[in-house]
Model the fold of this input.
Amino acid sequence: MTGSSPRPLSLGVATASYQIEGAVAEDGRGPSIWDTFAARPGAVRGGDDGTHACDSYHRLDDDVALVRDLGVDAYRFSVAWPRVQPEGTGRIEPRGLDYYERLVDRLLAEGIEPVATLYHWDLPQPLEDAGGWPERRTAEAFVDYARAVHDRLGDRVTSWATHNEPWCAAYLGYAAGVHAPGRQEGEAAHRAAHHLVLSHAWAAEALGDAHTGIVLNLAPVWAESDDPGDLAVADGVDAIRNRVWLDPLVDGAYDEGLLRVAPVLADPGLVRPGDLEAARGSAAWLGINYYTPVRPRRARGDAPPHPEQGAFPGVADLDLVVREPRTDIGWEVEPRGLEELLVRTHERTGLPLVITENGAAYADQVVVDGRVEDADRIAYVRDHLAAVARARAAGADVRGYFVWTLMDNFEWAEGYAKTFGLVHVDRSSPSLTRTPKASFHWFAEQVAAPARGRGAAGLVSP
Ligand code: FCB
Done:
C-alpha cells in the first residue's frame, strides 16, 4: 500500500471534540453554537445533542487504549475552543487545556503522533452572539485562542490544522442553515468564508512553525453533462466548494467565476488590503476530507431536494444529483473521486497532502457474541485506500490517511442515527460500551502489514 512514493503512508483515525467528548458543562467549558443549535426543536434528528456524546472526556485512557490497539501511527483530534476560552475571548481556562495535554501525553507515551485541529465547528456561543464568523473580530479572536493552545502543546504537537472543513462552517452553517448556527443568509456565508481563510492565515503565522495546515472538504465536481447550463452551475459549485479556499491559499486571489456568485468578496470593506497576501502560502500542508463526489446540474424540477442545495448561495437553479451505490447517510460511493482529487490537488498546490477523513456510515448496530460485522465499511475503506495508492503511484505527495472515525458518535444534524465508527458504542445504556467492529480488526491488520513500513514521525514535517 505504499505506492511509489518514498515515504510509507501514515495511517490513523480521526475524531472531533463535540462529537465524542460530552461533559459540556465541566471544568469551566462554556456553551458552543452546537449546544445551542442542537437544543432548537427540529434542528438535529431525534432531538439528539452532544451533552453526553461518547463521554470521551471521562474515558480518555480507555479511548487512547483503543487507538493503541488499532496500532495506528497517528490520531487526529480537535480542541474545543469553549473549553479553552469559555467566553470566546480573554480569559483562558487552564482545566480545558489540561485535558488536551493529558490526551497528547497519553498518545505520545503510546508512540502515536497527535494531530491537532483547532476548530472543528464548536464556536463559543458568545462569539456567535456578537455576529459569528461573518464578523472580522471572530477571526481576530481565533488567533488568540490558537496561540493559547499552541503555547501549551506546541512543544509536543508538531502537526497542526487550523480549521476543519470551513465550507461546512460557512455554508452549511450560515447559508443552508442545516448546521450550527442555523442561519440562512447567503451573503453572511461568503463573509464567513473569507474570515475563516483569514483566521487560518493569521493563526498559521502566529503559530510560527512550518507545520500548520488546514483541512478542506474539497470535492471533485462533475457536471452531469456538457450542456452549457450544467457547466455553468458546476462552475459555481466548484467555486464555492473548492476555489474559495484554494485560490487565496495558493494564489492570494479570488477568481472571476467566484466573484460572479459571491460579489461581496470584491467588497474592499470585507477583503481588506493585505488579507489575500496573508493567505497566500499560509498552508504548509493540506488535509483533505473525502467522502463522495458532487454532481451538479441545472435544475429541471424533477430531482428530490438535496440537503446541501442551499449551501451554494449565488448559484441559481441548482440540482445536486446523487448516484448509486450510497452509504446509509445517502452519500454516493465513488473511490475514483478520491484518486482524481488527490492528483489534481497535488498538481494545483504542490503541498503535502493528508487524507484527514474518509469513511462510511453503515447501519451496523448489532453486537452478536461480541462481534459487529461491517463488511460494507471494510470494502469502502479498502477501495479508497486502493485509490490513494494509485494517486501516490501517479506522483501525488500523500503523507497520511485517517479513517473517519474511531467510534460511533454525534453525527451533527443526523444525531446518533448515522454511524461511521470502527468501534461500536452501545447507546442503549449509560455504560456506552465500546465494541471494536470487524472493520477495526481489519484496519489493524492493514496497519500491521509488514509491507507497509511504519508511518514516519512528523506526518507533515518538511
Ligand atoms: C465531515 C466532518 C466530520 C464527520 C464526517 C462524517 O464533514 O468533518 O466531523 O461528521 O463528515
In short: The CA atoms of residues 19 and 424 lie 14 Å apart. The mean pLDDT is 96. The chain has 15 helices and twelve strands.
